[in-house]
Specification:
alpha+beta, Ferric Hydroxamate Uptake Protein, Chain A, domain 1, four-stranded mixed β-sheet, about 50% helix, about 15% strand, elongated
Length: about 200
């Protein structure tokens, strides 16, 4: 250990007072700097959030404007028999809708994602006939969502699109099994909550 550090115990009172005063002042300077830094950081974060929020509003407006221009073009191409072009525009329109609705990616089955009753959530899916489904019109949370969309006639197999999922009270509803659109659903006893799907 440094001998000078050991000799600190022998520091005269006058020197100790100077040292203590300096340490107190240094700590005060550090504390002030921390407060000022925190204040600047908070203001900067707030300003950044406002900039990002404004940008998102502008992006949303631009997407809506683009959507309004693309739809007549799709109709025009379809009317002229240019089906490939119309379908290509339709794909872009669906992508824009998914972005505007803040559609979530396909979760497989809803499980824990099933929202509170009455709440709608949007998902971007590709229709499938391969997943397990329980119910008809009203479906259990563990049903395969992309297959539910096909069973309900919202999407065709292989078709991509945005679907609206609405959580509903199914405590008085029996989940009936049926075959629809190439998907066979299975029956299930009553369950407190289930969901319905519709095209967005």
């Amino acid at each position: 250990m440094d001998p000078e550090l050991l000799s600190m115990d022998d520091t005269p009172a006058e020197a100790r007072a100077l040292l203590d005063a300096a340490e107190s002042e240094i700590e005060g300077l550090r504390s002030t700097a921390r407060r000022q830094s925190d204040d600047i950081r908070t203001r900067a974060e707030r300003a950044c959030a406002e900039i990002e929020e404004t940008a998102e509003e502008q992006i949303r407006s631009r997407r809506l404007e683009l959507l309004r221009h693309l739809k007549p073009l799709q109709d025009q191409n379809a009317g002229e028999g240019k089906l490939d072009e119309a379908l290509a525009i339709r794909d872009h329109i669906r992508t824009l809708k998914a972005q505007l609705l803040q559609a979530r990616p396909d979760p497989g089955s809803l499980g824990e994602e099933l929202p509170e009753v009455g709440i709608d959530i949007f998902y971007e899916l590709i229709g499938s006939i391969d997943g397990a489904v329980w119910g008809t019109d009203f479906y259990t949370a563990d049903s395969h969502l992309a297959s539910v969309a096909v069973h309900a006639g919202v999407l065709r197999e292989g078709e991509s699109g945005v679907v609206r999922v609405k959580s509903v009270d199914t405590s008085n509803i029996r989940f009936v099994g049926t075959e629809r659109n190439g998907v066979r659903s299975m029956p299930f006893a009553t369950w407190p909550t289930g969901f319905q799907v519709a095209r967005a």
